[in-house]
């Protein structure tokens, strides 16, 4: 019975380690976007013109890892963007804007197409013509780290289970031998 308890304890500890580190990876993926949305919202609120707030050149978010910014109007239509997706300014689902308008901000994982996942922060700006400031970046590197973490946690769990199994077998042999 102690071997089963040990296996359960090791399993719970390994899961806790995995979930804790994975969540840290994912939450840290939002850090640049939090700063970008806050800074741009503050500049818009102070009356700064839209021109110059985001870079003029753009890249396709399906292939680039750089953070990007998109400014949206009250209807959720993109006004300006430092990135594109399939040649157009990316458009978030309408439900995101409804939530952000009520709560001020949202931090989401967005998958605009297969194989393209973004860590997004959307902030309510409410400064005409910009109502929402969104910033995002690819989760590609974060997901590679998460995969490596899962492999390491699994290997450590397997090693621990082997040690517990060997100990159990040794106990069984000793018991049967009459010691």
Write a concise synopsis of the structure shown:
This protein has 2 domains: 2-19 and 144-177, no CATH class; 30-138, PAS domain (Beta-Lactamase, 2-Layer Sandwich), CATH 3.30.450.20. Helix content is 50%, strand content 24%. The chain has helices at residues 2-28, 31-45, 94-103, 140-177; strands at 59-60, 68-72, 78-81, 83-84, 105-113, 116-127, 130-138.
Secondary structure layout:
Elements: H1 2-28, H2 31-45, E1 59-60, E2 68-72, E3 78-81, E4 83-84, H3 94-103, E5 105-113, E6 116-127, E7 130-138, H4 140-177
Parallel strand pairs: 1-4
Antiparallel strand pairs: 2-3, 2-7, 5-6, 6-7
The SS-based structural class is: alpha+beta
Q: What characteristic shape results from the CA principal axes?
A: elongated
Largest beta-sheet characterization: 5 strands, antiparallel
CATH topology of the largest domain: Beta-Lactamase
Strand percentage, roughly?
15-25%
| Biggest sheet strand line-up | 3-2-7-6-5
Number of continuous helical runs: 4
Rg:
24 Å
How many domains in all? Answer: 2
H and E order: HHEEEEHEEEH
What is the CATH first-level class name of the largest domain?
Answer: Alpha Beta
CATH homologous superfamily caption of the largest domain: PAS domain
> What is the residue-mean pLDDT, rounded to a whole number?
93
Q: Return residue spans where pLDDT drops below 50 for at least 5 consecutive residues.
A: none
Separation, N- and C-terminal Cα atoms: 19 Å
Helix content: 40-55%
What is the total tally of β strands? 7
Q: Tell me the CATH architecture of the largest domain.
A: 2-Layer Sandwich
């Amino acid at each position: 019975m102690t071997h089963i308890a040990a296996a359960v304890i090791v399993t719970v500890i390994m899961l806790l380690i995995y979930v804790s580190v994975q969540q840290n990876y994912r939450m840290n993926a939002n850090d640049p976007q939090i700063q970008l949305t806050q800074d741009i919202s503050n500049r818009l609120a102070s009356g700064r013109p839209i021109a110059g707030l985001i870079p003029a050149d753009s890249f396709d978010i399906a292939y680039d890892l750089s953070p990007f910014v998109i400014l949206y109007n009250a209807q959720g239509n993109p006004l300006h963007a430092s990135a594109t997706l399939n040649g157009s300014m990316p458009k978030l689902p309408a439900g995101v804007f409804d939530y952000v308008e009520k709560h001020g901000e949202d931090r989401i994982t967005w998958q605009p197409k297969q194989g393209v996942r973004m860590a997004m922060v959307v902030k309510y700006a409410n400064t005409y013509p910009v109502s929402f400031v969104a910033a995002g970046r690819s989760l590609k590197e974060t997901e590679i780290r998460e995969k490596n973490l899962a492999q390491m946690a699994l290997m450590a769990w397997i090693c621990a289970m082997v040690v517990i199994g060997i100990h159990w077998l040794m106990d069984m042999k000793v018991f049967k031998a009459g010691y």
